TrEMBL record:
The lineage of its organism: Bacteria, Pseudomonadati, Campylobacterota, Epsilonproteobacteria, Campylobacterales. InterPro entries: Aldolase_TIM (IPR013785), N/Namide_PRibTrfase (IPR041525), NAPRTase_C (IPR041619), NAPRTase_N (IPR040727), Nic_PRibTrfase-Fam (IPR007229), Nic_PRibTrfase_pncB (IPR006405), Nicotinate_pribotase-like_C (IPR036068). Residues 150-352 form the Nicotinate/nicotinamide phosphoribosyltransferase domain. Its EC number is 6.3.4.21. Catalyzes the first step in the biosynthesis of NAD from nicotinic acid, the ATP-dependent synthesis of beta-nicotinate D-ribonucleotide from nicotinate and 5-phospho-D-ribose 1-phosphate. It catalyses: 5-phospho-alpha-D-ribose 1-diphosphate + nicotinate + ATP + H2O = nicotinate beta-D-ribonucleotide + ADP + phosphate + diphosphate. It comes from Campylobacter peloridis. GO terms for molecular function: nicotinamide phosphoribosyltransferase activity; nicotinate phosphoribosyltransferase activity. Belongs to the NAPRTase family. The keyword Translocase does not apply. PANTHER family: NICOTINATE PHOSPHORIBOSYLTRANSFERASE. This is Nicotinate phosphoribosyltransferase. Residues 5-129 form the Nicotinate phosphoribosyltransferase N-terminal domain. It comes from the Bacteria. GO terms for biological process: NAD+ biosynthetic process via the salvage pathway.
Length: 458
């Protein structure tokens, strides 16, 4: 689907102004970065590149788009004719999906004529701000849950269909094992999962009949939802059914699920009942407005839960629902020279670091130690005992896609490798360590020079 009009109207207004000033061919460099990770985390997860690539590949204005813009009476025919033939012709550099990233590091660089770069801003930001948010939340949950099975249950609480689909994708990249979203299974080849509903139990005269009928249909991988009425009676009925099926001898994948109440108290009660019945292979699945903070508390108190179904607090990142990536001009190109540009603010955190940059990550003993931001043309410094890599890959060159899509499973595996390279102190939920982002001496001097120059002009 073509979303070229999915842009803030000011972008079109500015595009028209550049066009009327004959500046529309001016090549510029925009940088995408974020200032603070959600939930006061030390890291975030880069996610959403594939959807951005798809948008750019289909970027064009249809005749109906042009007709709509003409009816606004804001633009002349010459500009609209220009838009009707517009396609992306620039370069894009990006961090790989699944990479752990840190505040103020350039995630993407967009080099293109000003109008092309400008009209991509909204779509790039809305995509990254959503998917990075959910992937980061999922990663934090996965780090706390460790070997536990994680099921994404968020569709019905998502902010619209695209949030449900892309949220399921981001959650999988962050470390989840399966999703309840069937369309995400089709579109992204994510394993899908679904269990019994409360309404199934309510449709029968009694709970035992509901369990028995369910098991007659689904003979493998059975999960019984035991708290429609009372979990104590529910576990008794589940045990009776599992005994009828000789589950302890003939089944490998069977479980009970709880969706309400004191999950710590109930799970310990269930585990004791199941073990006494000889059903030690029976797993316990828990859901009910879970997130990483609740799961951490449950596991610290030795809750015998084998799998977690996580919905609303993941798909909306309820505890910290804003990612805050921004899109800033850092340089322009004139006479084959790249000229740095800076934006200053009364808030020092919003003053930008000028110039076209490359982020380099340094490793020691396969552990990420620090990143250094260099200008694009600087030599990378060799630190004794460290290896390094450039975090950026070339995605588009002169408007042509030069990037090969990895599978979603490969992206998930890449994220696992990236998160495993971080010190455990960076992954703590409370008061994590701060990862070092160093700025080259050249960049520091460049920023100071621009700040001094601007201050002198006032």
């Amino acid at each position: 689907m073509n979303f070229s009009l999915l842009c803030d109207f000011y972008e079109l207004s500015m595009a028209y102004a550049y066009f009327k000033q004959n500046m529309h061919k001016q090549v510029v460099y925009f940088e995408v970065f974020f200032r603070k990770a959600p939930d006061n985390a030390s890291y975030a997860v880069f996610c959403g590149l594939e959807q951005i690539i798809d948008h750019i590949n289909h970027f064009s204005f249809s005749q109906s788009d042009i007709d709509f813009l003409k009816n606004t009476h804001k633009f002349d025919d010459e500009f609209l004719n220009y838009l009707s033939t517009l396609q992306f012709s620039g370069d894009i550099l990006s961090v790989k999906e699944g990479e752990c990233v840190f505040a103020n590091t350039p995630l993407m660089i967009i080099k293109a004529p000003i109008i092309e770069a400008l009209l991509l801003e909204t779509f790039i930001l809305l995509t990254l701000n959503h998917q990075c948010l959910i992937a980061t939340k999922a990663s934090r949950i996965a780090q706390i849950a460790k070997e536990k099975l994680l099921l994404e249950f968020g569709s019905r609480r998502a902010h619209g269909e695209s949030a449900a689909l892309n949220g399921a994708r981001a959650a999988f990249i962050g470390g989840f094992h399966a999703s309840a979203c069937t369309l995400a299974g089709k579109n992204f080849k994510i394993p899908i999962s679904g269990t019994m509903s409360h309404s199934w139990v309510q449709m029968f005269d009694d709970e035992l009949s509901a369990f028995r009928a369910y098991c007659q249909i689904y003979k493998d991988n059975i999960s019984l939802l035991i708290d429609t009425y009372d979990y104590k009676k529910g576990i008794e009925n589940a045990i009776l059914i599992f005994k009828e099926l000789n589950a302890q001898d003939f089944m490998q994948n069977y479980s009970v699920r709880i969706d309400s109440g004191d999950l710590l108290k109930i799970s310990k009660f269930l585990r004791k009942k199941l073990d006494l019945a000889g059903l030690k292979k029976c797993k316990i699945i828990a859901s009910n407005a879970l997130d990483e903070f609740i799961i951490e508390k449950l596991l610290k108190n030795k809750a015998p839960i084998d799998a977690f179904g996580i919905g609303e607090k993941l798909i909306t990142s309820a505890s910290s629902p804003i990612f805050g990536a921004v899109y800033k001009l850092v340089a322009i190109e004139k006479n084959n020279q790249i000229i740095p540009k800076i934006k200053i603010s009364a808030s020092s955190s919003k003053t930008t670091l000028p110039h076209f940059k490359k982020p380099i990550r340094y490793y020691k003993n396969k552990k990420a130690s620090f990143d250094v931001l260099y200008t694009y043309d600087e030599n990378v410094k060799n630190y004794q005992g460290y290896t390094y890599k450039n975090l950026h890959e070339l995605i588009f060159k002169d408007g042509k896609l030069v990037y090969e899509f990895p599978s979603l499973k490969n992206i998930q595996d890449y994220h696992k490798k990236s998160i495993d390279s971080l010190d455990f102190k960076l992954k703590k939920l409370q008061k994590p360590s701060i990862y070092k982002i160093k700025i080259s001496k050249k960049l520091k001097n460049l920023q100071k020079k621009h700040l001094d120059k601007i201050s002198l002009s006032f």
